[in-house]
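Many introductory courses stop at the sequence. We go one step further.
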Amino acid sequence: MLNRLIFLIHRWTGVVLALFMLLWFASGLVIMYSSSINLSRDQQLAHAEPLRLEQGWLSFGEAWKRSAGERAAGQSDKNGKTGSDEIGIVEARLSRQGGQPLWLVEDTRERRYAVSALDGHLWRATPEDALKIAATWLVRDGQEKTARDLQYVGIQEKGSSILRGQDALAPFHRVSLQNALGGEVIVSAVNGEVIQVSNALERGAYWAGNWLHLFRFFDSAGWGSVRNDVLLWIIAISLAACITGLIVGWLRWRPGWGGKPTYKEGRVHPYRVFWFRWHFWAGLIGGVVATLWAFSGIVNALQGKLFSPAAPTRDAMVRYYGTGIPEKIRDWQPSLTLSDALPDADEVVQLAWRRLGDDAILLASKTNGERITIDSTGFSETKLTAAIKRLTNSDASVKTQAALITEYDSHYYLRHRRD
């Protein structure tokens, strides 16, 4: 009776899951080998407008002070906390968007702002700005002809599964490239950054991969909270199919060891038809791998419940970066002197302040990805150790040990599209 139950479970779970597993495997290959349509910071810099500092631009501190009223009145983070609840700055970048010099800011509540370096007003990209920014991107990409024939499609108020992780930059302007490939540029209305540049084939590959493999259609339908549970149950059923298949294969395998009888004609299995024999051997040999693979899927789906999250929380990052605004960032004034001192100044597209505690460093970024540290050698070991102690809520007396990593190791290494 038990053997028959095992056979039935394996047969019918196999029938039901066969097509699904084929599509799921194919969609996994699509995710693995298709290019990402979400742009990296280096890609954004490579297509950005030259900064070309001018006299009279506001310091970050002055621009931030002038924009305080607008931020308090209209801005809130994803948790509903208003702009008046200022707790600190993670990064402040000076760049041009649509010809306008702007301070692009991220605070420790994940709120994003674009503040004019000319008058300190809070800036938002208009449809005209979006068209100009998209045209600049295409020209920098060598597509001058396409840049002359753009069409504004509309504004998207909220993020979607294809704009996952970009909620702080919503709403988004959509600009069509008007070409046979169905090209489209997505521009954030919050700070004018180009978020995506894709064609219809690339978007189709994204949907095929993420919708089929990661069940993102649950998110689009408003059922994102159950998506992980559905995946978990399907993986569990797949694991049951694998385990029962191994049991069936083991029960029907008669290798003849120790003089025990085999099947007719000395066969070690009862199958004569080629496809049955292929299924038997492929299942018996590959079943262990498939079982471990399905089990690893369960561990991955349950990792939020079994283990603490690997990524630090936002509150932890607030402790790491520190609150307030360092004087270095607040008082620094853009000047033509700095522009004259930078090598290949015409290739500089951004000046970015990164802070840690009460210290900060200024980085100049070029279109080729090169970053130049200005008037600094970086954060000292003392500053980094203090930040880590704040992050982990460690007492100041706790002893620490630090090592400088100059090449990839088991924890820090180059990852596909995550470097």
